[in-house]
Amino acid sequence: MTLLTIDIGGTSIKYGVWENEELSHKGNLKTPATWEEMKSSLIRIKETAEETFTIDGVAFSSPGAVNQEKRIIEGASALPYLHNFPIYDELETVLNCPVTFENDANCAALAEIWKGAAKGLKNVLFVVVGTGIGGAVIVDGQIQHGKHLFGGEFGFMLMTENETFSTLATAVNMAKRYAKRKGYEPETISGKKMFQLADEGDQIAQEEAATFYTYLARGIYNLQYSFDPEVILIGGGISNKAGLVEKLEEEFDKILETVKIAPFKPLIRTCEFKNDANLIGAVANYLQ
């Protein structure tokens, strides 16, 4: 089977062809501003692929709450034109082949249990740390979407009286807190820059980095003892940071000193697939 696989993102569309267990002919383009422009772009991508391949179907990764039963995308995202209409039917008509959709974070998780860092495992949590925190819950090898299609939306967890996992445990918000304390414009400091400042001895940067690591570890600890997965995978930009796993291990040690009844630390790994994760996971979803 030869599949065209497409990852629709807020700023770009990535695509490739899956054949003989390999992803090839990859490319990307800027995300169109309207649905009509999007359809035209998707038609062109498929027509170009068909110059070399016979395409059997198209596997999509997309933002939003994908309702596979109703064949629509619910919820909200950076691309409101994708939501709440029969998107499967419309694309199957214009692309002239079967299509499938799955949420982008769920696709990344499927890629990892199919061929990546959690290959061969059945019960896995996938925590995506980006601008906010999302993820996926996998039980017996299957994505658990939940009643409201909010399975894996870990960022909504309350960590203090009025702050969530997303507000306390992302590098983006860590940098914003640092900028506010220093009197800088928020957009002038990135998470990467702030980690660099912490390494160079900036005390406020070190304090904010400590807050970030503390709450990321607490959130992961809470998830471990709520779901008890075989492994928790960390994805998103933070997964590229050198020493992340070791730093979280140190934080888990501190937690276990306090919660003496807890018998083990969470097993965490960073994701194997980076930019290709959503494309590979969309294929896994299609084949399921």
TrEMBL record:
Query: Pfam families under this entry?
Result: ROK
**InterPro entries, from UniProt?**
ATPase_NBD (IPR043129), ROK (IPR000600)
Which segments of the protein form a coiled coil according to its record? none
Task: Extract the SUPFAM superfamilies matched here.
Answer: Actin-like ATPase domain
Specify the domain of life of the species encoding this protein. Bacteria
Q: Which family does it belong to?
A: Belongs to the ROK (NagC/XylR) family.
Question: Under what name is this protein listed?
Answer: ROK family protein
What's the source species' lineage?
Answer: Bacteria, Bacillati, Bacillota, Bacilli, Lactobacillales
